[in-house]
Amino acid sequence: MFRMQVRNHRIECCRTSALALIIACGATPAFAQDQAAATAPANEVASAAQPSDPTPRNAAPAQQGGGAGLAEIVVTGTRVARLGYTAPTPTTVIGTAQIQAAAPASLADYVNQLPALVGSTTPRVATTGASATVGANLYNLRALGANRTLVLLDGHRVAPSTLTGNIDVGLLPQALVERVDVVTGGASAAWGSDAVAGVVNYVLNTKFTGIMGNIQSGISDEGDARSFKAELSVGTKFADGRGHFLVSGEYHDDGSADPVTSRDWFKSYKVVNNPAYAPGNGQPVRLLEPGVGLGVATNGGLITSPGPLANTQFDGNGKPMPYNPGFTSGVLSFGGDAQDVSQIIRLASPVRGGTIYARGSYDLTDNITAYGEFGYANVKSKIYARVYERDGNITIRNDNAYLDPAIRATMAANGLTSFSLGKMFLDWGPSVGRNDREQFRYVGGLEGKFGNGWSWDVYGQHGKTDFLNGDYSNNPVTANFNNAVDAVVNPANGQIVCRSTLTNPGNGCVPYNVFGTNKSTPQALAYIYGQSYQNITIKQDVASASLRGEPFSTWAGPVSVALGGEWRRESYDATTTALDQTNAFFLGNFRPSQGHYNVKEGFFETVVPLLKDKRFFHEFDFNGAVRYTDYSLSGSVVSWKLGLTWDVDNQLRFRGTRSRDIRAPNLAELFQAGNNLNQTISDPVLNKSYSVQQFAAGNPNLVPEKADTTSVGVVYRPNWLPGFAASVDYFNIKIDKAIYSNTAQAVINLCQGGDPLQCSFITRNAANQITLIKLLPLNIGGEATRGVDFETSYTRNVSDIVSQWSGTLNLRMVGTYVAHRTVTVGGVKTEYAGQNANFDQNSQAVPSWRWLASATYDSDHFTASVTERFISAGKINVAWVEGVDIDKNHVPAVFYTDLSLGFKMPHLGKGAEIYFAVQNLFDRDPPVAPIFGATGFLSTGTNGYLYDVIGRQFRGGVRFKF
Fold it and tell me: What is the pTM of this model?
């Protein structure tokens, strides 16, 4: 059964499938009965009832054993727990039954299907990024960036997984998750910094008793992307029910997928400049072309110097041969012999790891309970980064020992002493690094109740993440590579040596034949390669106290309040190698750094009933919250929320909120000493493209971002159609003083447009060529998004339709329409809504429509679920006009169909089931939607942050519960 609760969302066009036809006629799954959800214990809310409202009612306490084991169901949209109250902030609640019905490879895979999440980072995005986020699952609500989505575990913060403050949800315990609350609106007043786009809260079944487990395995239709996970949880009571102990563990092993060349959809599509374009000649400025590669390097080597040697390349044996450049577009080329360096990109990064979660509680008295938690997670992922390449900047002299005699003769005849060579080292393979995270979490606290319905909670928490990033293989030390390539014959003995050893015999250099492929020796590579890595320890300490209750009543009912205070300290220490600090490597070049800040906060939230049981005012409630936050570095800031819910009757509800939300600068934005990366840029001053060093660093002078969020919606649950519910919600988020770090190309473009601040970040040499671009986060941005969420749902007993059948049919459709998603930097506003391709950054593709439609049949013996996912058609760049700015600017709409089947075995225990699932049933290929911009030469030709790049996948498993 669908036992999910989902917030406010969506409607979309019909597809010619039976499922879509049913949904289009008004049928979709149901939310839980308000009263059932309200009175169910916390560990049963997702499985005992079907939510009947897109925003669940926060529940009253229900007895859980003895004494203070009184559980309050606090849905994350508010911190107030009150019988029958529905918060005005839209909240999607995903229950265990719904997750199990879909049998996803990971919980994150399922949550990311919600239309409100766009551009989330996953291990299956198919990029070559040498990044600290490779292999992680980072939620991104509203495409506002993962650092504006607050992730909680049972309402508590956890130590960040990266210096950017992001939480890799793969480090959170999975097996005990009973529901996931997704708040799709500003929630800073309730939960603090980072909740600008919303909150994702993993709610655990901390009262579970018994034994339950799950074993699952999967594979793609192509035989790669293998996955395996095993989960086991054990819970028991002791001391006559006054105590409870719970331990849960999970192991998962998600294998890598093959390179993009293994899929027939890969055609090396990229956006290139049109060589036939001239102002006024009717040709488009750009072209969308297949078969595009680098025009400044080949695998065997390409001479890039003008003159008699131009258009000469070297074959695998190092012999010269003609090179057809085709049409050139900066560093790219098409229609000739160009080779695509992106062919080595893996479709998925391998990730392996596990978690352990343990919790113990004991009722000290009938009203006070002590509890403690321990969490451990260890996740290891591989980074398949880009191959080493030199874009026409390897200097080859005429006395190079490995130079072909014919080339040497041509040089002599033309008086050439050297030429420039471009080479991509595909024969070396990609640089393979790792992101290894180990996280510890300790929580201890007291909770209790007193008086007439008052409850309190005091806890302390310490979290630590140890993070190893880098350690790349095939990562040259640039100076060593240059020495090894400059090979000459030693006149003293006729042996081939490095030129540098003639004057410095003890430098250890081993000569390397750069012409052709597979010419390297183990000794040469041992000299060329080095190790670049950083070890980071991130710590978070939290102390919190909160109080909930109902101090008095008005004419319309009791006034509920929640208040408390929190203290938090976040710190980190990063160490690295001596060579990293000298920019010695192709990849890495990390810097040691450290930093910390403290936060002191106080919050207050209230629900005040204004009217009740009046004509046209069945219920009319006010929800307000305020939070005062004092940062040790940037001073104080106030966040707040004002909300109203108006139940006209028991069928029609209106709701709305207005809030001020904040995001404080994270550790990386404040303190990171920086790291250097090679970046290809287009220089408008010299009118050419080339590779430069970019240096990213922190800025301790940053202040918190401020956002204004508006949400207005309506919920309809007609009496004439029991089990049906529909909701529509408008959202509008505007961020001021947004912390923004430009890309290297954006810095160049803004400087060219006359921005002196950005010009100060660019260093040029005597030849006016850029040698370094500094990327510094600044409070210079403005970001905004606006749109509408829709949802319809319907549930019905099948026996009402066919008397001979039993079971329940649940139908549901959720969708999001984004009218605007803008970024303003340096006074320039850019629109991204309706754009399905990224400009260097993953949150810059925001389709106009996304929806998710599901049909689930559940009986005592059998469960079947069909899910339809839809991404609307869009453009590569919404600012481009097709036929003028580019020849083809259309990205087609995509449907994905998923199917799952479950066969229950009650004779083997409660919840015992064998299940099977097929994702992307019809093996739909991703559309052409390449990255454009500075990193466009590394594009696979599609957008892995939006589309399925793996193809059809199969999963099967068995779950049990005793």
Answer: 0.89
